[in-house]
Amino acid sequence: MPLGLLALAIGGFGIGLTEFVIAGLLPEVAADLRVDEAAAGWLISGYALGVAVGAIALTAAVIRRPRKRVLLGLMVLFVAGNLVSATAPDYQTMLLGRVIASLCHGAFFGIGAVVAADMVPRARRSAAIAVMFTGLTLANVLGVPFGTFIGQAYGWRATFWAITGIGILAFAGIAALVPASANGAGGTSLRGELRAFRSGQVWLSLVVTVLGFGGMFGAFTYIAYTLTEVGGFSSGAVPWLLVLFGGGLFAGNIAGGKAADRRLDASLIGLLAGLAVVLAAFALLASSQPATMVLLVLMGGFGFGTVPGLQTRIMNYAPGAATLASSANIAAFNIGNALGAWIGGAAIAAGLGYTSPLWAGSGLTVLAVAVLAAAAFAAARADRTTGAPGVPGADVAPESAAGLDAVGPRAAR
Predict the structure, then answer these.
(1) Neighbours of 413 (CB within 10 A)
(2) Residue 118: partners with Cβ closer than 8 Å, 6 or more residues away
Protein backbone atom coordinates (compact mmCIF):
# COMPACT_ATOMS: atom_id res chain seq x y z
CA MET A 1 0.00 0.00 0.00
CA PRO A 2 1.49 3.39 -0.95
CA LEU A 3 2.13 5.47 2.15
CA GLY A 4 0.46 8.41 0.45
CA LEU A 5 -2.87 6.60 0.92
CA LEU A 6 -2.25 6.58 4.67
CA ALA A 7 -1.75 10.36 4.62
CA LEU A 8 -5.03 10.79 2.74
CA ALA A 9 -6.75 8.50 5.25
CA ILE A 10 -5.51 10.68 8.14
CA GLY A 11 -6.99 13.71 6.39
CA GLY A 12 -10.24 11.82 5.91
CA PHE A 13 -10.26 10.87 9.59
CA GLY A 14 -9.92 14.49 10.66
CA ILE A 15 -12.62 15.68 8.27
CA GLY A 16 -14.98 12.89 9.32
CA LEU A 17 -14.37 13.74 12.96
CA THR A 18 -15.18 17.39 12.32
CA GLU A 19 -18.44 16.48 10.62
CA PHE A 20 -19.76 13.95 13.13
CA VAL A 21 -18.35 14.76 16.58
CA ILE A 22 -20.40 17.94 16.98
CA ALA A 23 -23.56 15.84 17.41
CA GLY A 24 -22.27 14.39 20.67
CA LEU A 25 -21.16 17.80 21.95
CA LEU A 26 -24.15 19.87 20.88
CA PRO A 27 -25.64 20.34 24.40
CA GLU A 28 -22.29 21.57 25.77
CA VAL A 29 -21.71 23.89 22.81
CA ALA A 30 -25.25 25.30 22.98
CA ALA A 31 -24.98 25.97 26.71
CA ASP A 32 -21.57 27.63 26.44
CA LEU A 33 -22.54 29.85 23.50
CA ARG A 34 -26.00 30.54 24.99
CA VAL A 35 -28.16 29.43 22.08
CA ASP A 36 -31.16 27.11 21.94
CA GLU A 37 -31.25 23.64 20.38
CA ALA A 38 -32.60 24.86 17.03
CA ALA A 39 -29.79 27.38 16.60
CA ALA A 40 -27.22 24.81 17.69
CA GLY A 41 -28.56 22.45 15.04
CA TRP A 42 -27.34 24.84 12.38
CA LEU A 43 -23.79 23.91 13.37
CA ILE A 44 -24.63 20.56 11.76
CA SER A 45 -26.90 21.75 8.95
CA GLY A 46 -24.58 24.62 8.03
CA TYR A 47 -21.70 22.19 7.74
CA ALA A 48 -23.70 19.89 5.44
CA LEU A 49 -24.66 22.79 3.17
CA GLY A 50 -21.04 23.93 3.06
CA VAL A 51 -19.97 20.44 1.96
CA ALA A 52 -22.43 20.40 -0.93
CA VAL A 53 -21.44 23.91 -2.09
CA GLY A 54 -17.70 23.46 -1.59
CA ALA A 55 -17.60 20.13 -3.40
CA ILE A 56 -18.57 21.80 -6.67
CA ALA A 57 -17.56 25.45 -6.31
CA LEU A 58 -14.16 24.96 -4.70
CA THR A 59 -13.20 22.10 -7.02
CA ALA A 60 -14.19 24.19 -10.03
CA ALA A 61 -12.09 27.08 -8.74
CA VAL A 62 -8.91 24.97 -8.42
CA ILE A 63 -9.47 22.59 -11.32
CA ARG A 64 -6.27 23.59 -13.15
CA ARG A 65 -4.08 23.68 -10.07
CA PRO A 66 -1.67 20.84 -9.22
CA ARG A 67 -3.63 18.28 -7.22
CA LYS A 68 -1.13 17.73 -4.43
CA ARG A 69 -0.83 21.46 -3.81
CA VAL A 70 -4.63 21.71 -3.80
CA LEU A 71 -4.88 18.97 -1.17
CA LEU A 72 -2.35 20.82 0.98
CA GLY A 73 -4.31 24.05 0.56
CA LEU A 74 -7.52 22.27 1.55
CA MET A 75 -5.88 21.01 4.73
CA VAL A 76 -4.83 24.58 5.55
CA LEU A 77 -8.49 25.59 5.13
CA PHE A 78 -9.50 22.68 7.36
CA VAL A 79 -7.04 23.67 10.09
CA ALA A 80 -8.15 27.31 9.90
CA GLY A 81 -11.83 26.40 10.23
CA ASN A 82 -11.28 24.22 13.28
CA LEU A 83 -8.98 26.80 14.84
CA VAL A 84 -11.76 29.38 14.49
CA SER A 85 -14.20 26.90 16.09
CA ALA A 86 -11.84 26.12 18.99
CA THR A 87 -11.40 29.81 19.83
CA ALA A 88 -14.90 31.04 18.93
CA PRO A 89 -16.09 33.67 21.45
CA ASP A 90 -19.71 33.50 20.25
CA TYR A 91 -22.18 31.47 18.21
CA GLN A 92 -21.71 33.43 14.98
CA THR A 93 -17.95 32.86 15.01
CA MET A 94 -18.46 29.18 15.76
CA LEU A 95 -20.84 28.84 12.81
CA LEU A 96 -18.30 30.63 10.60
CA GLY A 97 -15.60 28.18 11.66
CA ARG A 98 -17.88 25.24 10.85
CA VAL A 99 -18.61 26.60 7.38
CA ILE A 100 -14.92 27.30 6.66
CA ALA A 101 -14.00 23.73 7.63
CA SER A 102 -16.89 22.28 5.61
CA LEU A 103 -15.79 23.88 2.36
CA CYS A 104 -12.77 21.61 2.13
CA HIS A 105 -14.74 18.39 2.76
CA GLY A 106 -16.19 17.64 -0.66
CA ALA A 107 -13.18 18.87 -2.60
CA PHE A 108 -10.76 16.88 -0.43
CA PHE A 109 -12.57 13.58 -0.91
CA GLY A 110 -13.31 14.28 -4.57
CA ILE A 111 -9.76 15.27 -5.53
CA GLY A 112 -8.25 12.83 -3.04
CA ALA A 113 -10.11 9.95 -4.72
CA VAL A 114 -8.52 10.85 -8.06
CA VAL A 115 -5.06 11.08 -6.46
CA ALA A 116 -5.56 7.78 -4.61
CA ALA A 117 -6.65 6.01 -7.80
CA ASP A 118 -3.59 7.33 -9.64
CA MET A 119 -1.22 5.85 -7.03
CA VAL A 120 -2.07 2.24 -7.90
CA PRO A 121 -2.63 0.07 -11.00
CA ARG A 122 -6.04 0.52 -12.59
CA ALA A 123 -7.24 -2.88 -11.36
CA ARG A 124 -6.84 -1.67 -7.74
CA ARG A 125 -8.43 1.78 -8.02
CA SER A 126 -11.50 1.01 -5.89
CA ALA A 127 -9.37 -0.58 -3.17
CA ALA A 128 -7.14 2.52 -3.08
CA ILE A 129 -10.18 4.79 -2.77
CA ALA A 130 -11.47 2.55 0.02
CA VAL A 131 -8.22 3.06 1.96
CA MET A 132 -8.70 6.82 1.80
CA PHE A 133 -12.32 6.49 2.99
CA THR A 134 -11.14 4.24 5.83
CA GLY A 135 -10.29 7.44 7.69
CA LEU A 136 -13.92 8.54 7.43
CA THR A 137 -15.20 5.20 8.73
CA LEU A 138 -12.72 5.16 11.62
CA ALA A 139 -13.93 8.63 12.55
CA ASN A 140 -17.32 7.03 13.19
CA VAL A 141 -16.02 3.93 14.97
CA LEU A 142 -13.32 5.44 17.19
CA GLY A 143 -13.03 9.16 16.66
CA VAL A 144 -16.54 10.29 17.54
CA PRO A 145 -16.82 8.40 20.87
CA PHE A 146 -13.29 9.46 21.86
CA GLY A 147 -13.83 13.04 20.72
CA THR A 148 -17.08 13.22 22.66
CA PHE A 149 -15.32 11.87 25.75
CA ILE A 150 -12.58 14.53 25.47
CA GLY A 151 -15.17 17.25 25.03
CA GLN A 152 -17.21 16.14 28.03
CA ALA A 153 -14.13 15.70 30.23
CA TYR A 154 -12.10 18.78 29.26
CA GLY A 155 -14.59 21.04 27.51
CA TRP A 156 -15.85 20.99 23.94
CA ARG A 157 -13.10 23.33 22.77
CA ALA A 158 -10.49 20.68 23.63
CA THR A 159 -12.02 18.42 20.98
CA PHE A 160 -11.62 21.07 18.30
CA TRP A 161 -8.06 21.75 19.39
CA ALA A 162 -7.37 18.03 18.97
CA ILE A 163 -8.97 18.04 15.50
CA THR A 164 -6.81 21.03 14.57
CA GLY A 165 -3.75 18.97 15.53
CA ILE A 166 -4.95 16.07 13.36
CA GLY A 167 -5.26 18.51 10.45
CA ILE A 168 -1.65 19.64 10.91
CA LEU A 169 -0.54 15.99 11.01
CA ALA A 170 -2.46 15.26 7.81
CA PHE A 171 -0.87 18.29 6.11
CA ALA A 172 2.60 17.02 7.02
CA GLY A 173 1.75 13.50 5.87
CA ILE A 174 0.42 14.64 2.49
CA ALA A 175 3.44 16.89 1.97
CA ALA A 176 5.88 14.08 2.76
CA LEU A 177 4.15 10.93 1.49
CA VAL A 178 1.92 11.76 -1.45
CA PRO A 179 4.16 11.28 -4.51
CA ALA A 180 5.37 14.19 -6.59
CA SER A 181 3.52 12.71 -9.57
CA ALA A 182 0.27 13.66 -7.83
CA ASN A 183 1.32 17.28 -8.22
CA GLY A 184 0.53 17.11 -11.91
CA ALA A 185 -2.16 19.40 -13.15
CA GLY A 186 -5.76 18.51 -12.48
CA GLY A 187 -8.29 18.98 -15.24
CA THR A 188 -7.22 20.53 -18.52
CA SER A 189 -9.76 23.29 -17.95
CA LEU A 190 -13.07 23.88 -16.24
CA ARG A 191 -14.77 23.69 -19.62
CA GLY A 192 -13.09 20.34 -20.30
CA GLU A 193 -14.16 18.99 -16.90
CA LEU A 194 -17.74 20.13 -17.45
CA ARG A 195 -17.91 18.03 -20.63
CA ALA A 196 -18.01 14.94 -18.44
CA PHE A 197 -21.56 15.92 -17.51
CA ARG A 198 -22.66 15.40 -21.10
CA SER A 199 -22.49 11.69 -20.33
CA GLY A 200 -25.77 10.14 -19.31
CA GLN A 201 -23.85 7.52 -17.35
CA VAL A 202 -22.32 10.23 -15.15
CA TRP A 203 -25.77 11.60 -14.33
CA LEU A 204 -27.17 8.13 -13.68
CA SER A 205 -24.24 7.41 -11.35
CA LEU A 206 -25.07 10.59 -9.41
CA VAL A 207 -28.73 9.55 -9.14
CA VAL A 208 -27.72 6.13 -7.81
CA THR A 209 -25.50 7.81 -5.19
CA VAL A 210 -28.31 10.12 -4.05
CA LEU A 211 -30.86 7.30 -3.80
CA GLY A 212 -28.54 4.68 -2.31
CA PHE A 213 -27.06 6.89 0.37
CA GLY A 214 -30.42 8.56 0.93
CA GLY A 215 -31.78 5.14 1.77
CA MET A 216 -29.13 4.33 4.35
CA PHE A 217 -28.79 7.72 6.03
CA GLY A 218 -32.50 8.40 5.97
CA ALA A 219 -32.83 5.36 8.20
CA PHE A 220 -29.71 6.17 10.23
CA THR A 221 -30.78 9.75 11.01
CA TYR A 222 -33.60 8.51 13.23
CA ILE A 223 -31.95 5.31 14.43
CA ALA A 224 -31.78 6.50 18.06
CA TYR A 225 -35.57 6.71 18.15
CA THR A 226 -35.87 3.27 16.58
CA LEU A 227 -33.46 1.79 19.12
CA THR A 228 -35.09 3.33 22.18
CA GLU A 229 -38.78 3.55 21.26
CA VAL A 230 -39.07 0.27 19.32
CA GLY A 231 -36.09 -1.81 20.43
CA GLY A 232 -36.38 -0.93 24.11
CA PHE A 233 -32.71 0.02 24.53
CA SER A 234 -31.77 2.68 27.05
CA SER A 235 -30.50 6.00 25.75
CA GLY A 236 -27.14 5.24 27.38
CA ALA A 237 -26.77 2.14 25.19
CA VAL A 238 -27.18 4.07 21.94
CA PRO A 239 -23.53 5.27 21.58
CA TRP A 240 -22.25 1.72 22.04
CA LEU A 241 -24.76 0.35 19.54
CA LEU A 242 -23.58 2.95 17.04
CA VAL A 243 -20.07 1.52 17.39
CA LEU A 244 -21.53 -1.68 15.87
CA PHE A 245 -22.81 0.39 12.97
CA GLY A 246 -19.39 2.03 12.62
CA GLY A 247 -17.72 -1.38 12.58
CA GLY A 248 -19.97 -2.33 9.70
CA LEU A 249 -18.98 0.86 7.86
CA PHE A 250 -15.30 0.00 8.24
CA ALA A 251 -15.62 -3.61 7.09
CA GLY A 252 -18.01 -2.79 4.27
CA ASN A 253 -15.76 -0.05 2.92
CA ILE A 254 -12.78 -2.41 2.59
CA ALA A 255 -14.78 -5.36 1.24
CA GLY A 256 -16.74 -3.14 -1.15
CA GLY A 257 -13.55 -1.69 -2.61
CA LYS A 258 -12.15 -5.16 -3.34
CA ALA A 259 -15.45 -6.34 -4.83
CA ALA A 260 -15.73 -3.28 -7.07
CA ASP A 261 -12.26 -3.94 -8.49
CA ARG A 262 -13.45 -7.38 -9.59
CA ARG A 263 -16.89 -6.55 -11.01
CA LEU A 264 -17.97 -2.95 -10.60
CA ASP A 265 -21.63 -2.76 -11.57
CA ALA A 266 -22.46 -6.30 -10.43
CA SER A 267 -20.98 -5.68 -6.98
CA LEU A 268 -22.84 -2.37 -6.63
CA ILE A 269 -26.16 -3.94 -7.61
CA GLY A 270 -25.57 -6.76 -5.12
CA LEU A 271 -24.64 -4.40 -2.28
CA LEU A 272 -27.59 -2.06 -2.89
CA ALA A 273 -30.00 -4.97 -3.14
CA GLY A 274 -28.56 -6.38 0.09
CA LEU A 275 -29.01 -2.99 1.78
CA ALA A 276 -32.67 -2.84 0.71
CA VAL A 277 -33.26 -6.28 2.22
CA VAL A 278 -31.41 -5.39 5.44
CA LEU A 279 -33.43 -2.20 5.93
CA ALA A 280 -36.71 -4.03 5.39
CA ALA A 281 -35.65 -6.80 7.77
CA PHE A 282 -34.63 -4.18 10.34
CA ALA A 283 -38.09 -2.59 10.12
CA LEU A 284 -39.69 -5.99 10.74
CA LEU A 285 -37.34 -7.07 13.55
CA ALA A 286 -36.60 -3.77 15.30
CA SER A 287 -38.31 -4.97 18.48
CA SER A 288 -35.77 -7.81 18.81
CA GLN A 289 -32.58 -6.59 20.48
CA PRO A 290 -30.31 -9.43 19.24
CA ALA A 291 -31.57 -8.97 15.67
CA THR A 292 -31.10 -5.21 15.95
CA MET A 293 -27.43 -5.57 16.89
CA VAL A 294 -26.76 -7.84 13.91
CA LEU A 295 -28.72 -5.66 11.50
CA LEU A 296 -26.88 -2.50 12.60
CA VAL A 297 -23.60 -4.09 11.49
CA LEU A 298 -25.12 -5.25 8.21
CA MET A 299 -26.70 -1.85 7.51
CA GLY A 300 -23.34 -0.15 7.87
CA GLY A 301 -21.54 -2.84 5.89
CA PHE A 302 -23.86 -2.95 2.88
CA GLY A 303 -24.40 0.82 2.92
CA PHE A 304 -20.80 2.01 3.01
CA GLY A 305 -19.64 -0.93 0.90
CA THR A 306 -21.05 0.96 -2.08
CA VAL A 307 -18.89 4.06 -1.59
CA PRO A 308 -15.62 3.00 -3.32
CA GLY A 309 -17.53 1.52 -6.24
CA LEU A 310 -19.80 4.53 -6.70
CA GLN A 311 -16.78 6.83 -6.64
CA THR A 312 -14.91 4.63 -9.13
CA ARG A 313 -17.90 4.34 -11.47
CA ILE A 314 -18.32 8.06 -11.96
CA MET A 315 -14.57 8.47 -12.50
CA ASN A 316 -14.61 5.68 -15.11
CA TYR A 317 -17.32 7.46 -17.08
CA ALA A 318 -15.48 10.79 -16.97
CA PRO A 319 -12.11 9.88 -18.52
CA GLY A 320 -9.76 12.84 -18.63
CA ALA A 321 -12.25 14.91 -16.63
CA ALA A 322 -12.64 12.94 -13.42
CA THR A 323 -11.84 15.63 -10.85
CA LEU A 324 -15.06 17.64 -10.96
CA ALA A 325 -17.19 14.53 -11.48
CA SER A 326 -15.58 12.92 -8.44
CA SER A 327 -16.31 15.96 -6.28
CA ALA A 328 -19.86 16.11 -7.64
CA ASN A 329 -20.36 12.59 -6.37
CA ILE A 330 -19.30 13.69 -2.87
CA ALA A 331 -21.94 16.41 -3.10
CA ALA A 332 -24.43 13.74 -4.20
CA PHE A 333 -23.70 11.72 -1.04
CA ASN A 334 -24.63 14.75 1.07
CA ILE A 335 -27.71 15.53 -1.01
CA GLY A 336 -28.75 11.92 -0.46
CA ASN A 337 -28.25 12.35 3.29
CA ALA A 338 -30.52 15.40 3.30
CA LEU A 339 -33.15 13.76 1.07
CA GLY A 340 -33.27 10.60 3.15
CA ALA A 341 -33.50 12.53 6.41
CA TRP A 342 -36.35 14.66 5.03
CA ILE A 343 -38.33 11.64 3.80
CA GLY A 344 -37.76 9.74 7.06
CA GLY A 345 -38.82 12.74 9.11
CA ALA A 346 -41.92 13.21 6.98
CA ALA A 347 -42.84 9.56 7.51
CA ILE A 348 -42.56 9.91 11.30
CA ALA A 349 -44.53 13.18 11.23
CA ALA A 350 -47.28 11.42 9.28
CA GLY A 351 -47.70 9.03 12.20
CA LEU A 352 -46.19 5.98 10.50
CA GLY A 353 -44.01 5.14 13.48
CA TYR A 354 -40.30 4.97 14.24
CA THR A 355 -39.69 2.08 11.84
CA SER A 356 -41.02 4.11 8.91
CA PRO A 357 -37.61 5.64 8.06
CA LEU A 358 -36.32 2.09 7.60
CA TRP A 359 -39.15 1.26 5.20
CA ALA A 360 -38.61 4.56 3.35
CA GLY A 361 -34.88 3.86 3.17
CA SER A 362 -35.52 0.42 1.73
CA GLY A 363 -37.78 1.93 -0.92
CA LEU A 364 -35.17 4.52 -1.93
CA THR A 365 -32.54 1.81 -2.18
CA VAL A 366 -34.78 -0.32 -4.42
CA LEU A 367 -35.04 2.70 -6.74
CA ALA A 368 -31.23 2.95 -6.71
CA VAL A 369 -30.98 -0.72 -7.76
CA ALA A 370 -33.43 -0.15 -10.61
CA VAL A 371 -31.57 2.92 -11.90
CA LEU A 372 -28.19 1.21 -11.71
CA ALA A 373 -29.46 -1.97 -13.38
CA ALA A 374 -30.87 0.09 -16.26
CA ALA A 375 -27.64 2.05 -16.60
CA ALA A 376 -25.49 -1.08 -16.55
CA PHE A 377 -27.73 -2.80 -19.12
CA ALA A 378 -27.62 0.19 -21.47
CA ALA A 379 -23.84 0.49 -21.20
CA ALA A 380 -23.30 -3.24 -21.71
CA ARG A 381 -25.58 -3.27 -24.74
CA ALA A 382 -23.71 -0.36 -26.32
CA ASP A 383 -20.44 -2.10 -25.51
CA ARG A 384 -21.56 -5.29 -27.28
CA THR A 385 -22.63 -3.25 -30.29
CA THR A 386 -19.20 -1.68 -30.74
CA GLY A 387 -17.15 -4.64 -29.53
CA ALA A 388 -15.02 -2.30 -27.40
CA PRO A 389 -12.70 -3.94 -24.86
CA GLY A 390 -13.67 -3.85 -21.19
CA VAL A 391 -12.05 -1.78 -18.52
CA PRO A 392 -10.28 -3.60 -15.67
CA GLY A 393 -12.42 -3.55 -12.56
CA ALA A 394 -15.61 -2.73 -14.44
CA ASP A 395 -18.32 -4.73 -16.14
CA VAL A 396 -18.46 -2.41 -19.12
CA ALA A 397 -16.12 -0.26 -21.13
CA PRO A 398 -16.80 3.23 -19.84
CA GLU A 399 -13.97 4.78 -21.80
CA SER A 400 -15.39 3.72 -25.13
CA ALA A 401 -17.43 6.30 -26.94
CA ALA A 402 -20.36 3.94 -27.06
CA GLY A 403 -20.16 3.31 -23.32
CA LEU A 404 -20.28 7.03 -22.65
CA ASP A 405 -23.12 7.50 -25.10
CA ALA A 406 -25.17 4.61 -23.78
CA VAL A 407 -27.55 6.91 -21.94
CA GLY A 408 -27.17 10.43 -23.19
CA PRO A 409 -25.12 12.69 -25.47
CA ARG A 410 -21.53 12.00 -26.42
CA ALA A 411 -19.08 12.84 -23.65
CA ALA A 412 -15.94 14.65 -24.73
CA ARG A 413 -12.58 13.08 -24.04
Answers:
(1) 12
(2) 181, 182
Domain 1-186, architecture per CATH: Up-down Bundle (1.20)
Instruction: Tell me the mean pLDDT per 10 residues along the chain, length 413.
Output: 89 90 79 81 79 82 84 96 96 94 88 86 84 83 77 90 96 91 58 76 93 88 85 82 85 89 92 97 96 94 91 83 79 83 86 93 96 91 60 40 35 33
Q: Which of 301, 306, 320, 254 is nearest to 5 (CA)?
A: 254
| Contact present, 194 and 59 (Cβ < 8 Å) | no
Backbone phi, then psi, for 389, in 5-degree steps? -70, 150
CA 306 – CA 365 distance, rounded (Å): 12
Model-level pTM? Answer: 0.74
What is the Cα–Cα distance from 40 to 49, expressed in whole angstroms? 15
Rounded Cα gap, residues 240 and 226, in angstroms: 15
Q: What are phi and psi of 35, to 5 degrees?
A: -130, 160
> Which residues is 66 bridged to in the sheet?
185
Q: Which CATH homologous superfamily contains domain 189-413?
A: MFS general substrate transporter like domains (1.20.1250.20)
Q: Rounded to whole angstroms, how far apart are CA atoms 403 and 28?
A: 52
CATH topology match: 1-186 vs 189-413: yes
Q: What CA–CA distance (Å, rounded) separates 48 from 53?
A: 9
> Domain ranges in the chain?
1-186, 189-413
Give the integer Cα–Cα distance in Å for 21 and 10.
16
Using DSSP's 3-state secondary structure scheme, residue 199 falls into coil
